[in-house]
Amino acid sequence: MKITIIGTGYVGLVTGACLAEVGHDVFCLDVDQRKIAILNSGGIPIHEPGLDEVVARNVAAGRLRFSTDVEASVAHGDVQFIAVGTPPDEDGSADLQYVVAAARNIGKYMTSFKVVVDKSTVPVGTADRVSAAIAEELKSRQSALDFAVTSNPEFLKEGAAVADFMKPDRLVIGHANDTQGLRAQQIMREVYASFESAGHKIYWMDVRSAEFTKYAANAMLATRISFMNELANLADKVGVDIDAVRQGIGSDPRIGPGFLMAGCGYGGSCFPKDVQALVKTSQEYDYELKILRAVEEVNENQKHVLGSKIFAKYGKNLQGLKFALWGLAFKPDTDDMRAASSRVLIQELLRAGAHIVAFDPVATEEAQRVLALDFADAPVLLNQIHFARDAQTALSDADALVIVTEWKIFRSAELETIKSTLKHPVIFDGRNLFDPRTVKSLGMEYYPIGRAVLSQ
Ligand code: UDX
Fold first, then answer.
1. Which architecture does CATH list for 2-205?
2. Which one is catalytic: 18, 28, 264, 270?
3. CA of 400 to the centre of ligand 1 (A)
4. Does the pLDDT at position 239 exceed 80?
5. 266 lines ligand 1 (CB under 6 A)
6. In the prediction, which pLDDT does 93 show?
7. Which of 266, 306, 407, 429 should be mutated for ligand 1, with most atoms under 8 A from CB?
8. Nearest protein CA to atom 10 of ligand 1, as residue
9. Is 434 exposed, middle or buried (0-12, 13-18, 19+ CB in 10 A)?
10. What's the burial of 114, exposed, middle or buried (CB within 10 Å: 0-12/13-18/19+)?
11. For tag attachment on the chain, is the N or C end more exposed, with fewer CB atoms within 10 Å?
């Protein structure tokens, strides 16, 4: 099957590479010449485990190509995936200008029936806007060509995107029930034929429900995290171990064990943006999503939880103190710094006069880029932060270790070594990586999230 992917960002590149992997003939289009040049010279513009191999294998097999040529790319695919960015507007709603521009290009250059697939996370009703944009372009060309717009949201997790794509929990595809919509359904069934025959279930539904499903999934996951974070904050006050509670409730199949880890807040490109966008959609329909507003507020507060614990111990003035900071990315196995909790903590610590020596296995460069923006009003403060080449170097001479991202190498670090390298044996752990009893038994001060009862 001939497929075009519009947008070679995170979602587009993974989708393109993985669809080539199952045998399709894929053309990836991007307006960013720099990105296409990197891809055409064998590089990968993002950090995603395993993606480089899939890309290399399929480029070599001639099934995967990258181009900035809009006309040739649109002409190529019978199926056109729109996988461009939908950044939040100032008011929190999703900015659809790139989605609409992609639709216009399809309308402008298509020469045969096209199935258009909304892959980007887009609010309910976007398929109608995509349809309208394509129809308008066709009309201005006086073309009678047919097309159908479907919705096929992605549920990829950064750091596990290739595996998530190749072995999806489920596929969600929304299509219309008219003649073109049913034709599109048949074509989409072919696109995902190898997944269906491997036992991965496709949930067929109407387009709006498919669009909404993506937001509902992310909103539910974000709600679980904020819910556990609120309980963790209370657990610290009432003398309860939140991790014991997590296991106790997670064993109930109605609740399930995933996404119940308390911590210093969620970040990334999806949860914050999608929760906000859904709240915004509800407002447009004169309905208030009270729970999701609270989820967002709790999460913003939770990004300050490590700072609060640090201020409670040292006071508001942190001058003369040096903190080792482990983890900058919003989660492990990515260099993504979008909405990362580390950014809030770094703001708090540097503005209070502290020094930081930070280490992240892959996100240092990206962190330097975003911190320059975060501190645009006071760039001199960035003289107080340095970046270490490995985890242990960051510890030396520090008054405390602060953990923000749950990288595996941090979890497996030797507590004895941490203790002997730090100036003072103090750990603020935003991801509950260690057993508080063990840390305590080594004579270290430990500040986890919602587990104070075991560490005091
Ligand atoms: C998420 C969804 O999981 C994915 O299905 C969707 O397609 C995109 O958004 P992603 O943003 O890559 O994926 O990250 P995820 O692994 O879900 O983690 C998000 C954040 O939640 C991280 O900051 C993580 O540290 C935090 N988290 C996760 C918790 O604080 N507690 C948990 O129990 C799980």
1. 3-Layer(aba) Sandwich (3.40)
2. 270
3. 27
4. yes
5. yes
6. 82
7. 266
8. 157
9. buried
10. buried
11. C
- Token look-up 């309905």 returns 287
Residue found under tokens 């290739």: 162
270 is catalytic: yes
Domain boundaries, the chain: 2-205, 226-455
pLDDT value at 182 more than 90:
yes
Q: How far is CA 424 from CA 201, 324, 396, 418, 444, in A?
A: 53, 11, 10, 10, 9
* Pairwise CA distance, residues 30 & 67, whole Å: 7
Expressed in angstroms and rounded, the spacing between residue 383 Cα and the centre of ligand 1 is 31
Q: Reply yes or no on whether the pLDDT at 92 is more than 80.
A: no
State how far the alpha carbon of 124 is from the alpha carbons of 83, 85, 107, 204, 269, in Å: 16, 16, 21, 16, 19
Within a 10 A sphere around the Cβ of 379, how many other Cβ atoms?
A: 10
pLDDT reading at 219 higher than 90: yes
Overall average pLDDT of the 424-447 stretch: 98
Spell out the residues 6+ positions from residue 254 whose beta carbon is closer than 8 angstroms to its own.
none
Give exposure, 256-266, as e/b (b: 16+ Cβ within 10 Å): eeeebbbbbbb
Query: Would you say the pTM of this structure is higher than 0.80?
Result: yes
Q: What is the mean pLDDT of residues 439-443?
A: 97
Encode pLDDT of 359-415 as tens digits. Answer: 999 999 999 999 999 999 999 999 999 999 999 999 999 999 999 999 999 999 999
CATH (residue range 226-455): 3.40.50.720
The pick from 270, 273, 276, 403 for probing ligand 1's pocket by mutation, whose C-beta has the most ligand atoms within 8 angstroms, reads: 270
Buried b (16+ CB within 10 A) or exposed e, 19-48: bbbbebbbbbbbbeeebbebbeeeebbbbb
Cα 318 to chain centroid distance, Å, stands at 32
Question: Quick one: which of 89, 147, 160, 127 has its CA closest to 331?
Answer: 160
